[in-house]
Design goal:
Helix content of chain B: 25-40%
Number of helices of chain A: 22
CATH class of the largest domain in chain B: Alpha Beta
Number of domains of chain A: 6
Largest interface: A-B, 101 and 103 residues
Helix content of chain A: 10-25%
Oligomer: heterodimer
CATH topology of the largest domain in chain A: FAD/NAD(P)-binding domain
CATH architecture of the largest domain in chain B: 3-Layer(bba) Sandwich
Order of helices and strands of chain B: HEHEEHEEHEHEEHEEEEEHEEEEHEEEHH
CATH architecture of the largest domain in chain A: 3-Layer(bba) Sandwich
Strand order of the largest sheet of chain B: 6-7-5-15-16-17-14-18
């Protein structure tokens, strides 16, 4: 065991032991341990395999970037072992091994690595015949975790939240910022991705207990402050426009809108690059400190510290305090700056070697770290030959530099500048309302970070509208926290830059040699930064390498685009409950009670037909249609778009949006309406009713209702006519009472004069039906005498019941969408979007009569004027199959073939019991559109069916059933 | 291990030359100037050289090659379009694609996976049948299949899609494929470069000189070059370039977003598209799920990401594959789709002599890359539209002879 005595800020609950399994072996950890820390404490340093070469890997950052210690946790794939807390009973395996971690059969790829250079897969395997076989192999070895197909659909709750100031990161600068902003009066939310707040303030100590006091005190004040909410275990997933930040915790996503956002996300420590820098035991200095202070785990027995900044010296002191020996501090800088830290180390007998680096690391039999070869480097980072010397150790701490965790700042549109002293990108120009402080802002000294946080907190509060006074200046950094060239060349390579993707220094050299000498191209060709950690520990080094190879400065090389997400976000969190709105008409319950089989129509559920026990679907539909033709039946048409327009210029508005003329209508009249888009394509249809001088009530298709309302609202704003548009689609229930007995049924429920003289065909009337205020229109879509009755939605069911009761003696019944489709087809009426498509103009479908080109303007007029002068390309016609057609029946969208080429297509087809034939509508070439023309329809299997163009309506050609005979 | 890789292990230095020559300066004049170093522009340069021997060509790219929509799409290749013009054109593209890896000696990971366009409604089924019948007429493998075939090839799918959008059937297009998109641009780039064309990255066009209705030269950030022929292949930037020559196109630019999951062991062998659920998804050779949805509903020339996109897409994806609840999204991004009113491209001749347009690629540009290069090269050389692109002329908007491809767009836009 390597467990240390209790640490002051440790995350552990020492009273609870957690038992779990890893790779088939049993382990024990403590509650609060990460998986990785529990394994490390138990001596298990090998925790995963790398993606490409399947090299053994251990902890690298312990900060949520350790893609090589991803684990399969039952159904949870790609679990980040370095940060996810260990739980009782976990049964974990390393991802992407073949035969287990220890005996991974794919480990031999490591030996083949020289044959697998950068982009090797572009250079072979593409023999056309063999590629599918190679691809099978690739698909077997690729990927990380395994999806468990029995995982249930997890529905999470989402939350919306608001605050004046959102602080991202609860380290010293973030905590200070939160306090300052709150003191100024702002309501503050501060979030931190770690299980506990405090950040580096509680682990970068250099064995100096006083150093943690700053953060402990800030944390106490933050927790006690009434205007601050501290969200631990919560990361900012991304930054979207206007300070819209999804906060992700274990259970949900909270969508936060803040007036100001402070990014205090710190910096990622960057691995140093030397041969075998990936052996388990080699990790970032900050990872060792996390192990010590968060999990009370001793990272190693004997360490070599590779340093290039004060942080490395603190790591060495922390290691000593944890009882580890420090064999040497290798400082990559030419000289060691005089400092109390160096003095303290020397006093403890630690050897500090300036101008030194790790040349290579050596593995023991298990592939874990056993020692290093140190070397001297010259001013430009070259190895001084003959300077190599071997040091035994089981730990290497890499503390040679940082890269700002600026992902969110980039997403917000911050312009960054490379600072040569700091050797880091820092914000140069922040977007309005966005602030940065601490390491991400290029401020590294602890006291300065706190000051910088205070500065940012005040600025953010001021931006949110709070009065603040005074100004704070932050002293400039004097020492570079990052080495400009943390890279040591080695003839045998395996000096890794990107641990996700197993990219070595020579991969970059080779990619650049091949012409991928631009940071974005380099990324795409080498895949640097494309792994799950998205380059957090590799992009900066890749940039330095590219800069050196191309003789440019890091500023000139620039960075790749940072995009969401900061850390990967589970699909369940993004999906939330999964919102699939469904609309039910007010009559839905009535339909269900009558046995309706529902069909989806946009968001609506509509009765397709009403099932009758013992009867087939088609028989039910035909029976419903027969009832309409012979008696009376009722259909719910409440899904139609129902709009009202009011005002002196309402008629003018309708004149502009429909092809017909509406301002000259008489009150009490209705008129068919066709809508076209600007290119003259038929887009919607409906009926316009003038219910008062300046009030028109009109319908749209069910599927077009939302779009039409949106578009008309837009036009109403644009045109500034004196009228207002109201969407009554959901407020009104509508049903069509149709059939020869409809008048008789309705008469029982209303005092209105239903005589032809008082209420003629195509009239609209207002009155009461069954005591309910109603608007009624005499329309004839199905070709029978009928009334479309519109009532307030809350009375819909009452009216339905009343009509059903009144119609009982006349044999009333409901009819569904399918029967209506048949009935309208018998009348030759088209359905927009079924019998029309994205190019159909009104002339092609015989609606010339509905287009009033003499109006000064309507949408699509200009186009239609031109189109009318051109020959038609096709025509919608009625057709029928032979009298005794037997065999397969064509389906909608089967093609019409003439002389071996496509001459049209069927748009509607059905058996008509009232005509006694299969009838349909079809687009055909104009040359084929004469009544009586024979043509052929090709079925799916290629066989042909004969058909003949015929006149419409197929049924009751003179429309004598639906209106008064003159 | 293929023997071709041996040389890497046995050679002392990396045995690969530069794929793209670096050019410091522009020449004073070129036979053809291509604006846009994406797949289309580079393919045009490639076929100009290979088919027509024209190598005094400059490709001008304001960023880096393949950095626009070539590198932002979801890599799907198919030819199951709706209009005869579209079907013939994309079929040619698929044919060219299938041989590109060999032709380039570069593995594009061209992977034929089978493409299902799922239908959840009656009306979608009608459109699928229409497409299948038109496709078959032109010899394209395309058929309407029932839910059982969807299930057979993708056994993991929830056919009810969460209960609210049951799959009624699908248009199955066996040749549907995916490919490594960046490599397509690199292959064309290397091929053009090898034959003498010049690729100038980080070189932006600032103006186009037109005299007497003819192109005479191009102003760039690296100076003026004279030329009589310009091919414009700039996708979402088309309106900016056509403004420079002084005519308008009915192109409107919408963002189109996509996202990718963390790598997981491959399980999804097919390419699935659902118009009703606004989704398309396939699994890459790296094991990532590559996912897209419909266009953003507003016009804006921007590649910014929005949160509602991954939210909506994730919800629909889980309807189809509920077991992905724990899978994570690593990254989202956006491209700029240059949409046209009829969802077909705008290609070929323009009111300005010597200015050839390759635009209106909306959401279907990647799959057309080879055939675009081939036909645009032919068009520029012969100064008349290649027969495969006559249906895509800019004139069609004046003549009201549109090529209606809306029904073949992968998801409802």
């Amino acid at each position: 065991m390597k467990r240390l005595p209790a640490m002051p800020d440790e995350w552990l609950d020492r009273s609870r032991t957690v038992r779990f399994r890893f790779e088939g072996r049993s382990f024990e950890g403590l509650a609060g341990d990460s998986i990785a820390s529990a394994l490390w404490a138990a001596g298990q340093r090998s925790q995963g395999r790398s993606f490409k070469y399947h090299r053994v890997r251990g902890i690298l950052s312990a900060a949520n970037h350790d893609v090589n210690v991803m684990m399969q946790d039952g159904p949870k794939l790609n679990t980040r072992g370095d940060v996810v807390a260990v739980r009782e009973g976990m049964d974990l395996t390393a991802v992407n091994t073949f035969g287990g971690l220890a005996n991974d059969k794919a480990r031999h790829l490591n030996k083949l690595s020289r044959f697998l250079p950068v982009g090797f897969y572009y250079k072979a395997f593409h023999n056309k015949r063999l590629f599918p076989l190679w691809e099978k192999m690739f698909r077997r070895i690729t990927g990380l975790g395994v999806v468990d197909f029995s995982t249930p659909h997890i529905r999470t709750q989402k939350r919306y939240d608001f605050c004046d100031v959102l602080v991202i990161g609860a380290g010293p600068s973030g905590l200070a910022a939160a306090l300052s902003a709150a003191e100024a009066g702002a309501s503050v939310v501060v979030c931190d991705e770690n299980a506990r707040a405090g950040g580096s303030g509680l682990f970068q100590l250099g064995a100096d207990g006083a150093r943690r006091q700053h953060t402990v005190s800030l944390l106490q004040q933050v927790k006690a402050h009434p205007r601050i909410r501290l969200l631990e275990g919560t990361y900012a997933g991304a930054y979207y426009a206007d300070r819209w930040v999804p906060l992700i915790d274990e259970n949900r996503m909270t969508k936060m809108r803040a007036k100001s956002v402070i990014v205090a996300s710190g910096a990622y420590e960057q691995p140093s690059v030397f041969r075998n820098n990936d052996l388990p035991g080699i990790m970032n200095g900050s990872a060792m400190q996390r192990l010590i202070y968060r999990y009370a785990v001793k990272p190693c027995n004997t360490a070599v510290v590779l340093a290039a900044n004060a942080d490395g010296y603190r790591v060495a002191l922390d290691l000593l305090a944890a009882g580890a020996a420090v064999a040497a501090v290798l400082d990559m800088r030419a000289s060691v700056p005089a400092s109390p830290l160096a003095d303290a180390l020397r006093a403890k007998g630690v050897e500090i070697l300036a101008g030194h680096a790790v040349y290579e690391a050596h593995a023991d039999g298990k592939g874990e770290l056993a020692g290093v070869t140190a070397c001297r480097i010259d001013g430009s980072g070259r190895v001084v030959s003959g300077s190599q010397r071997r040091i035994s150790c089981d730990g290497v701490a890499m503390s040679t530099g940082w890269s700002p965790a600026a992902n969110l700042l980039y997403q917000a549109g911050t312009r960054m500048r490379f600072d040569d002293l700091l050797q880091q990108f820092v914000p140069e120009q922040l977007p309005e309302g966005v602030f940065a402080c601490g390491k991400v802002n290029g401020v590294f000294r602890l006291e300065s970070r706190i000051t910088d946080g205070q500065r940012a907190g005040l600025a953010a509060a001021a931006n949110a509208g709070f009065e603040v006074s005074g100004s704070i200046t932050v002293p400039a950094e004097t020492e570079s926290p990052s080495h400009a060239w943390p890279v040591v060349a080695h003839p045998d390579g395996k000096n890794f830059v990107d641990f996700d993707e197993d990219l070595q220094v020579k991969d970059f050299e080779n990619a650049v040699q091949e012409g991928y000498d631009n940071i974005e191209l380099l990324k795409r060709f080498s895949t640097v930064g494309m792994g799950p950690s998205q380059g957090k520990h590799s992009n900066m080094t890749a940039l330095r390498i590219l800069a050196r190879l191309t003789g440019k400065s890091p500023q000139q090389v620039g960075t790749t685009t940072a995009r969401p997400f900061f850390h990967p976000v589970p699909l369940s969190h993004l999906a939330g409950r999964g919102f699939s709105p469904q609309r039910h008409s007010p009559l839905h319950g009535r339909h269900a009670a009558l046995g309706a089989v529902f069909m989806q129509a946009g968001a609506w559920e509509r009765p397709e037909y009403y099932a009758v026990p013992g009867k087939s679907r088609i028989d039910c539909i035909r029976e419903e249609a027969r009832r309409v033709r012979t008696a009376v039946a009722l259909i719910d048409v409440g899904t139609l778009g129902k709009l009202e327009i009011r005002g002196p210029q309402a008629g003018e508005f309708l004149n502009r949006v429909y092809t017909g003329r509406y301002d000259n209508m008489k009150v009490g009249a209705t008129r068919y309406a066709v809508m076209c888009d600007e290119s003259g394509v038929l887009s919607d249809e409906g009926v316009v009713a003038r219910v008062a001088d300046d009030v028109f009530y009109f319908t749209t298709t069910s599927s077009g209702a939302a779009t039409v309302y949106r578009e008309l609202s837009r036009l109403n704003i644009e045109w500034k006519l004196d009228c207002g548009l109201i969407n009554l689609t959901g407020s009104y229930s509508a049903m069509n009472l149709a059939g020869p007995a409809s008048r008789k049924v309705l008469a029982q429920l209303t005092d209105m004069d239903l005589s032809s003289a008082a209420f003629p065909y195509l009239a609209v009337r207002s009155g009461t039906v069954a005591g309910i205020p109603a608007r009624m229109m005499r329309v004839g879509f199905v070709g029978e005498w009928g009334y479309e009755i519109h009532v307030p939605a809350e009375y819909g069911a009452t009216l339905w019941d009343a009509l059903m009761k009144a119609g009982e003696s006349s044999g009333i019944g409901p009819f569904g969408v399918e029967a209506q489709r048949l009935l309208r087809l018998e009348k030759g009426h088209l359905i927009v979007s079924q019998d029309t498509d994205g190019l159909t103009n009104p002339f092609e479908v015989g609606m010339d009569w509905a287009v009033k080109l003499d109006k000064p303007f309507f949408t699509g007029k200009r186009s239609l004027q031109i189109v009318r002068k051109m020959p038609l390309k096709r025509k919608l016609v009625g057709f029928r199959l032979g009298e005794n057609h037997s065999g397969e029946v064509p389906k909608e969208c089967h093609l019409i073939i003439q002389d071996g080429d496509i001459a049209g297509r069927v748009t509607s087809i059905s058996w008509s019991p009232h005509v006694g034939r299969f009838i349909g509508l079809a687009f055909v070439l104009p040359s084929m559109s004469e009544t009586g023309t024979a043509f052929q329809i090709r079925l799916t299997d290629g066989s042909m069916v004969n058909a003949e163009v015929c006149d419409t309506p197929f049924f009751d050609p003179k429309d004598e059933r639906q209106k008064e005979i003159e | 291990m293929p023997w071709r890789l041996l040389r890497f292990g046995l050679s002392k230095s990396h045995p690969e030359p530069r794929m793209f020559t670096a050019h410091d300066k522009l020449k004073p004049s070129y036979d053809v100037v291509i604006i846009g170093g994406g797949g289309h522009g580079l393919a045009s340069a490639y076929y100009l050289a290979r088919d027509h021997g024209i190598t005094n060509v400059a490709v001008l790219e304001k960023g880096y090659i393949g950095g626009g929509n070539t590198g932002r799409n979801t890599t799907i290749i198919r030819s199951n379009y709706l209009t005869p013009e579209g079907v013939k054109f994309y079929d040619k593209s698929v044919q060219l694609y299938q041989d590109l890896s060999t032709e380039f000696d570069l593995n594009l990971f061209y992977s034929t996976r089978g493409h299902f366009t799922l239908a959840h409604t009656d009306s979608a089924m009608r459109t699928m049948r229409w497409r299948a019948e038109v496709n078959k007429h032109y010899g394209i493998a395309s058929e309407v299949v029932g839910p059982e075939e969807v299930k057979r090839q993708t056994p993991q799918i929830d056919l009810s899609c969460g209960g609210h959008a049951p799959i009624q059937g699908a248009l199955y297009h066996a040749p549907g494929a995916v490919a490594r998109h960046d490599a397509v641009a690199w292959g064309y780039g290397r091929g053009a470069d090898m034959r003498g064309a010049e690729i100038h990255q980080q070189t932006a066009v600032t103006g186009i000189e037109v005299k007497g209705g003819k192109v005479v030269g191009v102003h760039t950030t690296k100076g003026f070059i004279s030329t009589n022929k310009v091919i414009c292949a700039v996708a979402g930037f088309t309106p900016r370039i056509t403004d420079m020559v002084g005519f308008k196109t009915p192109i409107f630019v919408h963002p189109l977003q996509a996202m990718v999951s963390e790598p997981m062991k491959p399980w999804l062998d097919t390419i699935l598209v659902s118009g009703s659920l606004h989704i398309y998804v396939s699994q890459s050779a790296r094991g990532e799920l590559v996912m897209g949805a419909s266009l953003d509903p507003y016009e804006v020339q921007s590649t910014r990401s929005t949160l509602d996109f991954p939210e909506g897409l994730a919800a629909h994806l889980l309807d189809m594959f509920p077991f992905l609840s724990h899978s994570k999204v690593v990254r989202q991004w956006a491209g700029m789709a240059d949409m046209t009113p009829d969802f077909a491209p705008i290609m070929g001749m323009t009111p300005v002599e010597g200015f050839y347009l390759d635009s209106g690629w909306g959401t279907w540009g990647f799959k057309a890359t080879p055939v675009c290069g081939k036909t645009m090269a032919w068009t520029a050389v012969n100064d008349k539209p290649h027969e495969l692109i006559t249906g895509f002329s800019l004139d069609r908007f004046r003549n009201y002879s549109l090529t209606g491809e809306k029904g073949a767009a992968s998801v409802g836009h």
